[in-house]
Amino acid sequence: MRLLQISPRIYQDETIYSIAARLILNDLSASVCSGMTNVLGSRNYQIDSGLPSFLPRLAEVTGCETETLLNNHSLFNFYSMFSVSTAREAAKEMLLNGNSSGAFKALGMLANRINDERFLKFCPQCMREWEFAYGDLVWLRDHQLPLVSVCAHHRIKLVQVERRRYKLMFPRLNCESEINESVVDFKIADFSRILPTLGSFEPQKLRLTYLQRLAERGLATDKTIHLSKWRPELRKYYSHLLIDERVAQLLNDNREHGFPANIFYNKFGSHHPLKHMLIICFLFEHVGDFVVSYSAADKKALAEFKLSQPTPQLEIDHGRREKIMYAVKNKMSLRRAMKYANVSAATVRNIASGSGLSLERRNQKLTHDVVRSITLRLLVGYKTQEIAELTGVLVGDVEQILTGQPEIKQLRKRIRFYSRRQAARSVIKSEMACCDKFRVKDAKERCYSDYMWLYKHDREWLKQSINNA
Ligand SMILES: [Zn+2]
């Protein structure tokens, strides 16, 4: 007979995922799928905390009110704080009735095409304290907000664990704490944590707040925003976050009038909160600085800003295309065409071949300088494709130079080997650091491909490290 759990525990600040995962794992079913069916009535739910679709059912099982679950345990307040009030109310209503996709749509999150957070995150020090106080481990809401990578209380880097649909997980104890010194990361954590607790922000007034600060910093006048100056500054400010595909996508060099311009020109669209967070953290020193500026922003002053419409992206693309066609028709070399149209080699080739034109293969030999720069890059291990892009020659040319240099070929093989080995070793080491007793079984479970690579190529080190763990 299955024992029914009475009033399951719900901790303050823990996420919907955390509550649901504990219930499902406590169900003692043979698998997560059957646990989900027993507890939530279906195995088809996506167990997440952002805008979850199973709130009514979870409320029934836990005895906690649906609205309390939404306000105190989901990320709804974060995701909706920059939306207009009608959209926010509509999304809330939908979530209370279990309609998650409707809520995503109402908040404009589908149109934004920004991926969800791939990781579950926890702070090792918070977990030690939590275990001491409650004898339990939980996922905390502030840590799961997108782009947040540091615990605002302890200034410690959050440990990330990749989410898997049918594997429910909890934080681990005894992970090493690593201090994070990045001011930007700390600001993102602080803003993301505090702003949703202050209520919501009206889009029109937000734009004015941004514009006034931009003007103070010389990045806008009352007629125009200096995007060509602002975007490089944003890229520089967030350079360490460009490895995150969402940030890279938003600050992509080829989308001049995408972000951040669309926040100002597409006035009626809803925007993903990440876009606002990137602007706010860049423009304001701390939460107080932002709140004071926002409160002081005067609606009447918006009339002073008569921003002229930017050139649409389509027009920019068209102009680029024209330039490339001109260059190709006039038999410019690939390198000159790249420089002339300010685009990559691949773009020139694609547009030329798409229009049925073939690029003139240069008859003259590569100059001494070009050969030298290719050789140097080959020596330090650049990929041939990258070298071709950077120097504006064909991949075939680079490969030809490589063929004539067997020593460099050998060296490149060694470089590849050592970097692969270094990467695999550091994955194993970081997994070890998070584990009390690290065994072969753990290695296979958590980082199979790295384990297998080391087993094949670096078995001594692997054996020794696992034995010493
Ligand atoms: Zn912490």
From TrEMBL:
Top-level taxon of the source organism: Bacteria
Pfam family of the protein (one): TnsD
Location of the TniQ domain: 6-158
Domain annotation Transposon Tn7 transposition protein TnsD C-terminal: ranges: 201-465
Full protein name: Uncharacterized protein
